[in-house]
Amino acid sequence: MKMSDPQLYSMTVMWNGIEDVQQQLLAFIDESKKIQSWNKPFDGLFLIASSSSSEEIAQSIFKFLQGVSPFIISKLELGQNFGTLPEQSWQWFKEQGFKKES
Predict the structure, then answer these.
(1) Are 48 and 6 in contact (CB under 8 A)?
(2) Other beta carbons within 10 Å of 9
(3) Which of 28, 43, 66, 95 is deepest in the core (most CB within 10 A)?
(4) Between 3.40.50, 3.30.70, 2.60.40, 2.60.120, what CATH number should domain 7-95 receive?
(5) pTM for this entry
(6) The organism sits in which domain of life (predicted)?
């Protein structure tokens, strides 16, 4: 079975001051079969590359978090997202096959 090309998503998480949840979620994301690659530009934001849908990823995260921390996952559309990020995040986008627009 051929995997489809990965899509890019952003996941925003509110930690509610629960430090151990952050570390557990990082480990969960790192080992998730639904997530091919990820980047964390700053606290509370994850950039995710996955062949799964945003709904599938969200269901997996929801089961893990069990309502402890609210979050949202959104599909990123090339050319429709603007802002500033650390250079390492732009490098991650480039590694995923997307280029920074000038």
Answers:
(1) no
(2) 21
(3) 28
(4) 3.30.70
(5) 0.85
(6) Bacteria
